[in-house]
Design a protein that fits this description.
The complex is a heterodimer of chains A (about 180) and B (about 140). Chain A is an all-alpha fold. Chain A is about 65% helix and about 0% strand. Chain A has nine helices and no strands. The longest helix of chain A is centred in the C-terminal third of the chain and has 25 residues. Chain A is globular, with a radius of gyration of 19 Å. Chain B is globular, with a radius of gyration of 18 Å. The chains are: A mainly alpha (about 180), B mainly alpha (about 140). At the A-B interface, helix 2, helix 3, helix 4, helix 5 and helix 7 of A face helix 1, helix 2, helix 3, helix 4 and helix 5 of B.
Chain lengths: ~180, ~140
């Protein structure tokens, strides 16, 4: 039990993510979390305005159920399976973040500067959350998948398109953290 | 019954993402700074086992738990859409510090501002749907 309450090392987390993919494939389904965003658009009426949202969303209902399960899992893990949710990241990263004004680095799961109380209402923070989310949604569909669909499932199936997408993910992430973060923070 | 199984698989995945800290904004930042092996270890080990699993399933023509044939489809061939879409996704991933799976985790964990990120991701998906025919693929 003690082991469960502590943060799980990579060699536990990684194999269990592979197990998740394996279970979904053995259930005759696919491992892809961003597809749900498209389904949500269709359910919300997107099929009336764009061809892309005209598909039988009920055939994708299983994936929405998985997403609900993921949220319940997040609730359980945070409230019942965790002693301290402080994420102990590397000291160099902590220092870098402190210098940029993220004083919660190393002492929280998510930056309090974004996620605690009313911090998110600050125009700059709100802008970051909106732009970040928008790029994830737009980019995932443009690339035809996200981390689960490309970096795990697609690369597991040795797909060159997924390799291109994952290289893209890293180019984007590196540009954001190394070039744009110093301009933003 | 099947729905309950999907729910349980999701629940399991949600616990794994939270507990392995893959849903933490800080871990994503640290990853893009190459300051820790943690995220690379997670993705690398998942991928190592995933490749073996996928090969075995394809080779043995394994059927699903329900006895149906399993098809693992190839991705459509292209470069442009994966490159541009991938870079846009990566910019958002580092900024919001969460990809779609972790977004659902963080909603459940009660980090409410993530709802702004999630709604915005739906909006981004919606805009892609509107612009799709005009974008290079």
């Amino acid at each position: 039990m003690e082991f469960i309450l502590k943060p799980w090392p990579w060699y536990v987390g990684g194999p269990l993510i592979a197990l998740t993919m394996a279970l979904l494939i053995l259930l005759g389904k696919r491992f892809g979390m961003s597809s749900n965003l498209r389904t949500i658009c269709t359910v919300a009426g997107g099929h009336k305005v764009a061809e892309f949202f005209r598909f039988d969303w009920k055939a994708q209902r299983w994936n929405l159920i998985v997403a609900v399960g993921v949220a319940i899992g997040g609730f359980l893990a945070k409230n019942h399976l965790t002693e301290s949710d402080h994420v102990t990241i590397n000291a160099t990263s902590v220092k870098q973040l402190n210098d940029m004004g993220f004083l919660s680095a190393g002492n929280a799961y998510m930056p309090e500067e974004f996620f605690s109380g009313n911090a998110w209402l600050h125009p700059k923070v709100l802008g970051i959350l909106i732009i970040g989310g928008f790029l994830v949604g737009f980019g995932a569909r443009y690339a035809g998948g996200c981390t689960s669909g490309h970096a795990i499932s697609g690369l597991s199936n040795l797909q060159l398109p997924s390799l291109i997408a994952v290289i893209g993910f890293f180019v984007g992430g590196l540009v954001m953290v190394h070039i744009l973060f110093p301009l933003i923070f | 019954m099947r729905n309950l199984i999907y729910l349980m698989v999701g629940l399991f995945f949600g616990v794994v993402l939270f507990k392995s800290e893959a849903a933490s904004w800080f871990r994503i930042y640290e990853m893009f700074r190459f300051d820790s092996f943690h995220m690379y270890g997670i993705m690398g080990s998942a991928l190592f086992l995933g490749i073996i699993f996928t090969k075995v399933v394809k080779h043995n023509k394994t059927t699903s738990f329900f006895g149906e044939p399993i098809t693992i489809a190839d991705k459509e061939k292209s470069v442009v859409r994966y490159a541009i879409g991938g870079v846009l996704f990566g910019l958002g991933w580092a900024l919001a510090g969460a990809c779609p799976g972790p977004m659902y985790v963080l909603v459940g964990a009660g980090y409410w501002p993530i709802l702004v990120v999630l709604l915005s991701a739906v909006l981004g998906t919606f805009c892609y749907g509107l612009l799709r025919s005009k974008l290079p693929h």
